[in-house]
Design a protein that fits this description.
Elements lengths: L9 E7 L6 H11 L3 E6 L6 H8 L4 E5 L6 H14 L4 E4 L11 H9 L5 E5 L6 E3 L3 H18 L11 E4 H6 L9 H14 L4 E5 L1 E3 L10 H19 L11
Parallel strand pairs: 1-2, 1-4, 2-3, 5-8, 6-9
Antiparallel strand pairs: 4-7, 5-7
Amino acid sequence: MDSSSSGQRALVIVPTYNERDSIVITLRRILTASDADVLVVDDASPDGTSQLVRDLEEPRVHVLDRPGKLGLGTAYVDGFGWGLERGYGVLVEMDADGSHPADRLQALIDAVRGGGADLAIGSRWVRGGSVVDWPRHREVLSRGANAYARVMLGLSVHDATAGFRAFSADLLRRFDLAGIHSQGYCFQIDMTVRARDLGARIVELPIAFREREHGVSKMSASIILEAMLRVTWWGLRRLTGRRLQEPAPA
């Protein structure tokens, strides 16, 4: 199938905040490993990440500048909107820090483009998946968070918190993107639940997830707490038979 045909182009959305040390090599890996374009969504990085990307003058790489540090969830939502407006048929989430394996990117794209999936997730916790150079406590936290989400939300997905995933444009158009306020881990769970509730076909592909190669992790206690509180809220509403609804944004 001609990937450049209408509706079949892929866009990889890469949120950045102070990722100067890693973004160039990540972009090179994406461009080499796939036929996708890239949108870097930068939150006014003080280290000049945005300008560094522009200086590459790579025709397949675009930059969306935002006025400040507005968070991961809204970065993806803005990126989805940018891509949908320009007719991309597959939209991919990917980290800037090198933790997501670029050699699995085309497989995610193809699972949506021609494989019949609405959402393809690069999963650490299915057969063949793994984590590399992770401390034990991080693995326990991730496995525990996913187990809790499966129980509370009735999910069959093994890695609902995974941030390496490809969506079909058709599925994203059915989402109320403006109504999504979750961030971090919680954003990924939120998107998974919404896809499930819309009857989307969700597949998981094994990946080897690596600890970030450069820079400092953006993970914080507030991100973890948000995920726990929202999943508990949604789960209680589900168990009481009420429609899933987000708590008011903080």
